Amino acid sequence: MPDHDRRKPDEPSTRTGEPSTQADEPSTRTGEPSTQAGEPSTQAGEPSTQAGEPSTQADVPSTRTGEPSMTTIGTPRLDLVPLRVEHAEEMAAVLAAPELHAFTGGAPLGPEELRARYERLVAGPPGWRNWVIRLRAEDRLVGYVQATIEGRTAEIAWVIGLPWQGRRLASEAAGALAGLLETQAIDTIVAHIHPDHAASAAVARSAGLRPTGQWHDGELRWERTLGDR
Length: 229
Fold this sequence. Notes:
single chain, 27% strand, globular
């Protein structure tokens, strides 16, 4: 899974890693893995998939609307809220389970470390797009999603904290992000998922992505083409 780190020097990478016993709420990596929102990403329980390192390029022209807009995205149960540095303290608790790093390596970050990471993400190139996930019924953050835009390709990633896995929240959040990208100047949505991360694979499939048979750093590339819609 993507990770702004993977493509960005000091941010984690997005592989799928939230470990979870259920196959339908993966996390496409991060443990702080993703190079974007800096949280664990696709680990087995609620996958997180991120899209590589954001590109520094300016808007990509198209008949669609341009770069994904950083506004709040609502779903039946969730609000995907644009990442702010102030989210670090609450998110450090959400991402504190070591299990979230099962597929990505590393260890959870403390509030100050996560704050420093979020400062880098918020100040990053326009192609780095990060949202934290708020569960409306509990009025609390439960994970994050991210998209790294390079040209007309978006690599996505998602992570749900361990206590909230198993409720299909990752599928709901990743689907909402993919829906937003459908309206943008994007032709392809990508995610990289560990072959043993069944939960993350289920989330990717629910968002319309399919395995390609291509591998990168031990992860399988999943793709969805939007250009033919």
